[in-house]
Amino acid sequence: MFRNLLIADSGKGHVEEMVRMLRDIPPCRQARINLLHVVPEQAGEDFQEHWQKAAGIVAEAVQRLGLNPGDVNTIIRQGDTKQTVLKVADELNADLIVMGSRGLGRLQSILSNSASQYVFQLSTRPMLLVRDDLYVRHVNRVLVTVDGTGVGDDALRMACELVRDIPGGSLIGVHVTRHDITPSRGGKSPVDEVLEKAVLRARGFGVAMQTLHRTGDIGRTVCAAAEEAKADLLVIASQDRRPLVAQALVDLDRLLGSSVSDYIRVHAPAPVLLVREPEGRR
């Protein structure tokens, strides 16, 4: 499923631990590992020193991951981290971007120039965010959001392909509505129909999926469901609109609003695999 992973490694956090966990999952064992480290633009006269330090960080990361250096594509670039990650992901046609995150809120992230928040909002590729304050566990229990949309189906497929070959692995689908929905005369509600279709779709991928229906604020409720399920990984579909005017501009019209995926990014009790809607489908 994942053939080409881009790991944005700063030498901190739990990203490498998450990569080791991913490599234990059959669909990811044969994936090409691309390890990226970005030298800051302001290196100036100390560029050579920064470059040598970056080479050391990358070499240590390869060693910690237990990989043969010849099997890893190590990349050192100079530039703005967030722009460079997006550019390299496009160059490699990466299947998945893996980044660490300090778990800052939207405004705090923007003020601190958070690279992961920027990439999270702008990338159209699947992205796995691993917060620095999380304990990373072997992936066994996966929770996926179910909403009946096209990108929701993409997230469900990805979750199924991850879980399917994990011995004892389990998949839970959660559908959240803001209010209870009254069943129709036939006894079924739209929620029942969405969940039944999702169960059938998962079965088509060879996975028996349990389902949950919860009501309330979507972001908070998804995080609570992940906590309740003791999920090791949370897969979410996101249709949040990204800035279209210029990537260098902050998405100000959403800054004071609510973003489900951004809330989950900050508060989820497990690493978050974000699945975006492909550009051609919008």
Q: What's the number of extended β-strand segments?
A: 10
CATH topology of the largest domain: Rossmann fold
Order of helices and strands: EHEHEHEHHEEHEHEHEHHE
Low-confidence parts, pLDDT < 50 over ≥5 residues? 104-113, 243-257
Helix content: 25-40%
At the first level of CATH, the class of the largest domain is: Alpha Beta
Structural class: alpha/beta
Average pLDDT works out at: 83
From the 3D coordinates, which CATH architecture of the largest domain would you assign? 3-Layer(aba) Sandwich
Spatial sequence of strands, sheet with the most strands: 3-2-1-4-5-10-9-6-7-8
Instruction: Count the domains.
Output: 2
Global shape: elongated
Rg (C-alpha, Å)? 19 Å
Largest sheet: 10 strands, mixed
Task: Please characterize this protein's 3D structure.
There is one protein chain. The chain contains ten helices and ten strands. It has a ten-stranded mixed sheet, with helices on both faces. The longest helix is centred in the N-terminal third of the chain and has 18 residues, at about 45-65. Helix content is about 35%, strand content about 20%. It has two domains: about 5-130, 3-Layer(aba) Sandwich (Rossmann fold), CATH 3.40.50; about 140-270, Rossmann fold (3-Layer(aba) Sandwich), CATH 3.40.50. With about 280 residues, the protein is an alpha/beta fold. The protein has helices at about 15-20, 45-65, 80-90, 105-110, 115-120, 150-165, 190-205, 220-230, 250-255, 260-265; strands at about 5-10, 30-40, 70-80, 95-100, 125-130, 140-145, 170-175, 210-215, 235-240, 270-275.
